[in-house]
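Regression test case RT-17, inverse folding.

Input:
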């Protein structure tokens, strides 16, 4: 695995819901993560993932929604986990489904963090800092904007 820090980290954000996508983007920027690619569905995500592998520049972090047009996040997580080096990439899934079955299924498939909707930016940042710390991206901070 390559050495990462917030300046070099590449994130893929897969959401069809623009307000939440904007919230993720704002949190990432406030943490110093600027190399972010946004897509709105699973098909586009697969295209970008394939391109990243061709360029030998895979994404270091993936955010995805469980429910998206034409597919769901579980289909995409299965695809992501089937690819090297994406089999170890942190994946943060966001869902309104709080059932024990869905959470367990997400964890079994390799989701790093399962977040329930709605989520406050500070909670999102807290979970992101935790995930980045686990993969060796230290010294990541989130300072919430003044209210």
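Golden output:
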């Amino acid at each position: 695995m390559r050495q990462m820090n917030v300046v070099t980290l590449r994130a893929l954000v897969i959401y069809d819901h623009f307000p939440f996508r904007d919230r993720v983007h704002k949190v990432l920027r406030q943490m110093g993560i600027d190399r972010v690619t946004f897509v709105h569905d699973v098909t586009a995500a697969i295209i970008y993932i394939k391109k990243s592998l061709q360029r030998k520049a895979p994404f270091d972090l993936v955010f995805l929604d469980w429910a998206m047009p034409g597919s769901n996040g579980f289909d995409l997580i299965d695809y992501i986990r089937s690819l090297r080096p994406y089999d170890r990439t942190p994946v943060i899934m966001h869902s309104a489904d709080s059932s024990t079955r869905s959470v367990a299924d997400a964890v079994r498939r390799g989701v790093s963090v399962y977040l329930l909707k709605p989520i406050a930016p500070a909670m999102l940042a807290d979970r992101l800092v935790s995930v980045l710390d686990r993969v060796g991206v230290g010294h990541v901070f989130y300072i919430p904007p003044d209210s």
